[in-house]
From TrEMBL:
Designated name of the protein: ATP-dependent DNA helicase RecQ
GO biological process, any: DNA recombination
Catalytic activity: Couples ATP hydrolysis with the unwinding of duplex DNA by translocating in the 3'-5' direction
NCBIfam families: recQ_fam
PROSITE patterns attached to this UniProt entry: HELICASE_ATP_BIND_1, HELICASE_CTER
CC terms in the record's Gene Ontology section: bacterial nucleoid; cytoplasm; replisome
Length: 640
C-alpha cells in the first residue's frame, strides 16, 4: 500500500474516532470512503442500519469545501443536522416550509461561512435561487440518500429527484455518492444513468441478514396469532398496519391484554409523535403499532420483532421495514401475516394508483380552487397542505389523489414535501441600536425583547427557533399574548416571525393554467404501471414461494445465493419434515427388524406423525427399495 493511501486511511480512522467514537469501520464503509476520496462517483447499497451516513460524513470532513446532502426525509435531515452540531460540526438544512428570507440567509452562510454540511430536500432544487447559490459554493461532495427515488423502475420514485443531475452542470468535477438500502439490478443501473456517473464504482453489501427469521403466514386470526407471538418472543417490536384507525384499535387491544403499546401515524401532532417515539426508544413502551410513517431513520438495535398485519406495496418496502429488526446482530423475527382480503386489496390499490388522465386534470383544477389561485398566478407560492381535508372537500378518494399529485409533480406543475414539524422562527430585521431605542419607548415589548436577547445569539444575523410556550412561562403571561407580541414586532417591521407548522407543504412551480391545457406525460404513467404490476406480482411470488425466504429476497435484488437460511418458516417446515422422516425411518427399520408385518401392523407400530405422514414415508422407503413388499407383507431390506 503506498504512503498517500495509508495516510488517507489513517486520517479517516482518526476522524471516525474523534467525532463518532468508533475505532473501526463497519464492512464496506472504508472502501466507499476511499472511493470518494479518490474523486470517483460511487453507488453504495447498504442495508437499513448499515451506517450509510458515515460514508459521506467522514470523507467530507477531510475534503475542502461543503458536502451537499440530498434527502427526501426531512425529519431524518433535521436529526442528522442536530447530531452533527452536537459534535461541533457546522451543518444546516433547507426544506419546504422555510421562508425565502430564511433560505437566503442559510445559503449565504454556506457560501461565506464555515458550514460543512448542507442538507437539502430534493424539491428545493426546483428553485432558481437555490441552484444559483450552489453554483457559488465550494462543493466537495454531493451525497444522495435514498437514491432509488430517482429511478422510475424503483418502488418509491420521487419526481423531484430528476433535478439532481442538474448539479453536474453547476460543479462538473465534484463526485456523487448515491446511497440506498434497496435496489434491483435495473434500479442500480438506472441510478447511475440518471446521475450521469462517470467511471463510477458500485459497492454492495449482501442483502442476506442471517440473524433474521423471515416468516410469511396465511392467517385468518391475525390478532390472536399476533398476541401469541408477542407474548412468546419477548423484547420490543413494531407492528405495521395500513391505516391510522388500525394503529389505535390494535394498540388498545394489546394494552387490554397486558402489553404496553402505543399507536403512531402521520395524523398525530409532532409533540405526540416525538413523545411516543421516545417512550419506545427508551423501552418504556414495548410495542409500537404504526403505519409506514414510523421507523425511517430510527436506529434502535434491540428490536426483536417486526410484524406486518397486511401486505406492503412492494418487496423493497417490506425489506426496509422488516430490516428494522435485529440490528444488534441477535436473533429477530420479521413476520408477515395476511389473508385473502389482503391479497385482493394489494391489487385494488395497484389499480387505483394509476387514475385516468381526466382524474389528474380534475385534481389539478381542485388544487387551484382549494388554494384560491387565479389563472396565470401562483408560481413559487407554498401552502400547508392537508390531503385528507382536500379529498373530503371535493369528495375524491385519497389513494388515486396521491398518485395524481405525484404525476403532476413529475411534470413540473407542483412540488409536495412530507409532513414535518418546523418550529416557529424569529429574526430581528433592524440593528441592535434600533431595537434598544424601541425597547426604551415600549414597556409592553421590553420584557419579551430582553428574554429573546438573553436566550439566543445571532438573532440579528439569522433565524432562530423560538418556543412561544417557554416565553409565556418565563414572562408569566399567556401563549396568545406572546404570539401577538411576536406578530406585532413583525408588523412594525422590526423583526420577522414565522409561526410553527406541522403539515406537508405544496408549492406551485408554474402559474395556474386551465386544466384543459394541462400537460401530463401519459407514456410515463403507462411505464410506471408496468413497473408497479411487476412489484405486486413479486410480492405474490414471495408469499407463494416454496424456496427459502432469504434466498427469494436476495434473488429479487439480483443476488445469487443457494444456501438456505435454515431459520425462515419454509426452512423450519422442511427441517421438521426431514426430522420426522428420519425418525419414522428409524421406527420402520426397528419394527421390521423384528419380523415382517402387513401394512396395518406396521402403521400401528409407529408412534410419530399421523397416518398420512407414516404412509408417505413407507411409500418413499418402498420406492428407494429400503423395504420390500412380498405377498402383502413388508420386510427391511438388509442389503442397505
Amino acid at each position: 500500500m503506498d504512503e498517500a493511501r495509508l495516510n488517507m486511511e489513517n486520517k479517516s480512522l482518526t476522524i471516525l474516532e474523534q467525532y463518532w467514537g468508533y475505532t473501526a469501520f463497519r464492512p464496506l464503509q472504508e472502501e466507499i470512503i476511499n472511493s470518494i476520496l479518490a474523486g470517483r462517483d460511487t453507488l453504495a447499497l447498504m442495508p437499513t442500519g448499515g451506517g450509510k451516513s458515515i460514508c459521506f460524513q467522514v470523507p467530507a470532513m477531510q475534503m475542502a469545501g461543503i458536502c451537499i446532502v440530498i434527502s427526501p426525509l426531512v425529519a431524518l435531515m433535521k436529526d442528522q443536522v442536530e447530531t452533527l452540531r452536537k459534535k461541533g460540526i457546522d451543518a444546516i438544512a433547507i426544506f419546504s416550509g422555510m421562508s425565502r428570507r430564511e433560505i437566503d440567509i442559510a445559503l449565504d452562510n454556506c457560501i461565506y461561512g464555515r458550514i460543512k454540511f448542507l442538507y437539502l430536500a430534493p424539491e428545493r432544487l426546483y428553485s432558481d435561487l437555490v441552484r444559483e447559490r450552489i453554483r457559488h459554493m465550494k462543493v466537495s461532495l454531493f451525497a444522495v440518500d435514498e437514491a432509488h427515488c430517482i429511478s422510475q423502475w424503483g418502488y418509491d420514485f420521487r419526481p423531484s429527484y430528476l433535478q439532481l443531475v442538474g448539479l453536474r452542470e453547476l460543479h462538473p468535477s465534484v463526485p456523487f455518492l448515491a446511497l440506498t438500502a434497496t435496489a434491483t439490478p435495473d434500479v442500480v443501473q438506472d441510478i447511475q444513468d440518471k446521475l450521469g456517473f462517470v467511471g463510477g464504482q458500485v459497492f454492495r453489501k449482501s442483502f442476506r441478514r442471517s440473524n433474521l427469521s423471515y416468516m410469511a403466514l396465511a392467517e385468518d386470526d391475525k390478532m390472536g396469532r399476533m398476541l401469541r407471538m408477542i407474548q412468546k418472543l419477548g423484547g420490543v417490536g413494531v407492528v405495521y398496519v395500513r391505516s391510522r384507525r388500525e394503529t389505535q384499535e390494535i394498540a388498545r387491544f394489546l394494552v387490554n391484554h397486558g402489553i404496553s403499546a402505543e399507536s403512531y401515524h402521520a395524523g398525530l401532532d409532532a409533540a405526540t409523535r416525538n413523545a411516543r417515539q421516545d417512550a419506545w426508544m427508551g423501552n418504556k413502551v414495548r410495542v409500537m403499532v404504526a403505519t409506514n410513517a414510523f421507523g425511517m431513520g430510527i436506529d434502535k438495535p434491540d428490536v426483536r420483532f417486526v410484524l406486518h398485519l397486511g401486505l406492503p406495496d412492494s418487496l423493497e418496502a417490506y425489506y426496509q421495514e422488516a430490516g428494522r429488526a435485529g440490528r444488534d446482530g441477535k436473533k429477530a423475527f420479521p413476520v408477515l401475516m395476511y389473508d385473502q382480503a389482503d391479497r385482493e386489496r394489494l391489487w385494488t390499490n395497484y389499480e387505483a394508483s394509476f387514475p385516468p388522465f381526466s382524474f389528474i386534470q380534475k385534481v389539478y383544477h381542485h388544487l387551484g380552487n382549494y388554494f384560491q389561485i387565479a389563472y396565470g398566478a401562483g408560481k413559487g407560492v407554498t401552502f400547508d397542505f392537508d390531503l385528507v381535508d382536500f379529498c373530503k372537500r371535493y369528495q375524491i378518494d385519497v389513494y388515486p389523489t396521491v398518485s395524481a399529485l405525484k404525476f403532476l409533480e413529475r411534470d413540473g406543475w407542483i412540488a409536495v414535501s412530507e409532513a414535518v414539524f418546523i418550529p416557529s422562527r424569529f429574526k430581528f430585521e433592524v440593528d441592535y441600536q434600533e431595537v434598544y431605542k424601541f425597547q426604551v419607548q415600549s414597556a409592553k415589548y421590553d420584557p419579551l425583547i430582553k428574554l429573546i436577547l438573553r436566550s439566543y445569539g445571532g438573532v440579528f444575523d439569522f433565524y432562530v427557533p423560538v418556543h412561544e410556550f417557554e416565553f409565556a412561562k418565563k414572562l408569566k403571561t399567556s401563549y396568545t399574548a406572546v404570539v401577538e407580541m411576536l406578530s406585532g414586532l413583525q408588523k412594525l417591521q422590526l423583526a420577522s416571525y414565522l409561526p410553527k407548522t406541522d403539515a406537508p407543504q405544496l408549492e406551485f412551480l408554474q402559474p395556474r393554467v386551465d386544466y384543459k391545457n394541462l400537460y401530463v406525460d401519459t407514456g410515463f404513467i403507462a411505464e410506471r404501471k408496468k413497473v408497479k404490476e411487476g412489484q405486486v406480482k413479486a410480492m405474490y411470488a414471495y408469499l407463494d414461494t416454496k424456496r427459502c425466504r432469504s434466498i427469494t429476497l436476495q434473488s429479487y435484488f439480483g443476488e445469487q445465493d443457494d444456501q438456505a437460511c435454515g431459520a425462515c418458516d419454509l426452512c423450519l417446515v422442511r427441517k421438521h419434515r426431514a426430522d420426522i422422516t428420519q425418525k419414522l425411518t428409524e421406527e420402520v427399520k426397528n419394527a421390521l427388524m423384528g419380523g415382517e408385518k402387513d401394512i396395518k401392523q406396521l402403521v400401528d407400530d409407529l408412534t410419530i406423525g399421523d397416518d398420512s405422514t407414516r404412509l408417505s414415508v413407507i411409500r418413499s422407503l418402498l420406492d428407494k427399495e429400503r423395504i420390500v413388499l412380498k405377498d402383502g407383507y413388508y420386510r427391511w431390506n438388509t442389503d442397505f
